[in-house]
Write a structure and sequence with these properties.
The chain is built from ten helices and eight strands. It has helices spanning 3-11, 20-37, 93-97, 108-111, 143-151, 156-169, 181-188, 214-224, 226-233, 243-254; strands at 12-16, 61-68, 73-81, 114-122, 174-179, 195-196, 201-202, 206-213. Strands 1, 2, 3, 4, 5, 6, 7 and 8 form an eight-stranded mixed sheet that branches. It starts with a helix and ends in a 9-residue tail after the last helix.
Length: 263
């Protein structure tokens, strides 16, 4: 086990928010980050008198919580908006709020295996380094935090591990998201970047629509960021290492639009 994996299991726990109590914790964390700490456009606190930020997409989503083991504090959350099994043509929020380039198309076959990453939030200032944002603060930095950051580069990576697990569980191969470009650049340090598929738009601030064919991302990680790949896939138990044959099978079975497969 690498130092990265050891630090992950020591400091972080990923939970599927599948109980009313955990869902409430996720919604409240979203409220605190989006409505209070970051004051994100479109998330005015007065809209949520119960201090729970949620919307109509939550009912067709699977949710994650990230807990910091030493403190027991929930420090991050995200959701994966899944296709509607009864009507997979129903559009995702990114499709409705941004514009795709003409050459990018989610066709009928690929839509069944597409999901959107949404509400990717982290409490401000957690393990904060100079110049970093969107991470929970403590009153002062401690040697323990310094050691944690030395071994585990960024808590958002722990949420990505959870997302990869969810995608495998729900047979998701195509992922879209609306993100700030800075977040996508940060993901790129670990081989996790998505591909821009449209111009930036005013969607809770300036955000860009992104897409990735998950097997391409995992293949890139396997080749260029092996330690990260081992963490994300649990050494291939979640996503097998033989992505070439897996890719062939998925292409034959699902026939996604070739213009969608980039990166």
């Amino acid at each position: 086990m690498s130092n990265l994996e050891a630090a992950f299991h020591r400091y972080f726990e990923i939970l599927t928010a599948d109980t009313p109590e955990l869902l409430e914790a996720a919604y409240n964390l979203r409220y605190r980050v989006l409505c209070i700490h970051n004051a994100t456009p479109g998330f005015e606190a007065e809209k949520y008198p119960n201090k729970l930020e949620n919307d109509g997409y939550d009912n067709r989503s699977t949710h994650l919580l990230l807990r910091h083991r030493p403190t027991g504090i929930f420090i991050g959350t995200t959701r994966l908006i899944l296709p509607d099994p009864q009507n997979p043509d129903i559009q995702f929020p990114t499709e409705l709020r941004t514009r795709f380039y003409p050459e990018f198309v989610l066709n009928e076959s690929s839509r069944k295996y597409t999901a959107e990453i949404s509400r990717f939030v982290m409490l401000n200032d957690f393990f904060k380094r100079k110049g970093e944002q969107n991470m929970l603060s403590q009153p002062s930095e401690t040697e323990q935090k310094t050691q944690e950051r030395r071994h585990f580069p960024h808590p958002m990576l722990a949420l990505v591990v959870g997302i990869a697990q969810l995608c495998a569980r729900h047979h998701v191969y195509h992922v879209i998201s609306s993100m700030e470009p800075a977040l996508n650049r940060l993901l790129g340090f670990y081989g996790l970047q998505l591909n821009p598929v449209g111009p930036s738009a005013d969607y809770h601030g300036l955000r860009t629509p992104y897409y990735v064919y998950l097997l391409d991302m995992l293949d890139r990680m396997y080749q260029e960021h092996r330690t990260i790949w081992e963490l994300v896939t649990d050494h291939g138990k979640i996503w097998p290492a033989d992505l070439i044959s897996m890719r062939r099978k998925s292409l034959i079975a699902y026939q996604p639009n070739k213009t969608c497969i980039s990166g």
